Amino acid sequence: MNLKIAVLPGDGIGPEISVQGVEVMKSTARKFGHNIEFEEALVGAAAIDAVGDPFPEKTFEVCRNSDAVFFSAVGDTRFDNNPAAKVRPEQGLLAMRKKLGLFANIRPVETFEALIHLSPLRREIVDGADFVCIRELTGGMYFGKKEEGDECAYDTNLYTRAEVERILRVAYDYARRRRHHLTVVDKANVLASSRLWRRVAKRMADEYPDVTTDFMYVDNAAMRMIQDPKFFDVMVTENTFGDILTDEGSVISGSMGLLPSASTGESTPVFEPVHGSWPQAKGLDIANPLAQILSAAMLFEYFGLKEEGSLIRKAVAASLEANVRTGDIQVEGEKAYSTSEVGAWISSYIDNYEA
Ligand code: IPM
Ligand code: MN
């Protein structure tokens, strides 16, 4: 297969983990005889510094003309505690989502045997947890009308029926490919927008009789996720609830450093780690590259290249097994490997793999 991939390293640890992900894709492409062309583009603080815009038109063009975007992270401490900043790196991410119409954010939560001891949850609760959160990504409070005054400020949580329907379709399709269980998470006891979600979901449930649909208030879902994460198979929710719940989901597995995500919609899909830019670790070669590398697996799988995706997953599992791990997930008494060492180990595992 011929693929063109836009590489957006962004800020903080982004560039370091991006390189490792790209190397893993190159190794995988060589192994299976694919031809991948990479083109790098600016995003986030790096783009603000270079051209004054966190998602420059040029970057948009590179993304639009690619088959997929391989994204790392944006965010920089220079902007975090400065409410007066006119442009922020995060706006680059939001602009990318909106302009590429990336309305469906797929965030899987799975556990790795080698990491269960790092989970804040007891082994018997978390072992075997495996669910996907489908987060609506281009609507709700993030993009609704807002005002920001000194005495009064508001954000509007607006959803149209069409927006709700299309994200529910994605969720139902996922449920069909998994354990046929969909949980719609909302706050229908309080919010009008949530009641629209529920009405639409109840109508659609009839079209998917093979999927069990249940409804859960978001506060209850937050609780259930730590009490009984194995309850969930596919969860679907609006933008803001999804933002919060997926951070919660990411730590259940023992480390945020392992969770990849995909965002799909109307144009080029984007593959990225769930974690952020960790500016304090920038340039230190200590960040965990696994979420980024697993994003590459999701990218291949998106294009139907299942074996390629599984080989990357296998290589990641082997690196954990061999204790070739960065400090955040290393077992006591073992050496903390650097970002580049972990990446190189995984690439060479793929290079030398014989089926
Ligand atoms: C995420 C991030 C973003 C979000 C930020 C950086 C704008 O937290 O992808 O979850 O809130 O969506
Ligand atoms: Mn978030």
Q: Which descriptors would you attach to this protein?
A:
355 residues; alpha/beta; ten-stranded mixed sheet; two-stranded antiparallel ribbon; 13 helices; 42% helix; globular; binds 3-isopropylmalic acid; binds manganese (II) ion
Bound molecules: 3-isopropylmalic acid, manganese (II) ion
Give the mean pLDDT: 96
By DSSP (H or I, 4+ residues per run), the number of helices equals: 13
Strand order of the largest sheet: 2-1-3-12-11-4-5-10-8-9
Overall structural class, as computed from helix and strand content, comes to alpha/beta
Q: Sheet bearing the most strands, described?
A: 10 strands, mixed
- What's the end-to-end separation, in Å? 20 Å
SSE succession:
EHEHHEHHEHEEEHEHEHEHEEHHH
> What is the beta-strand fraction?
15-25%
Q: How much is the radius of gyration in Å? A: 20 Å
Shape: globular
What share of residues is helical? 40-55%
Spans with pLDDT under 50 lasting ≥5 residues? none
Number of beta strands: 12
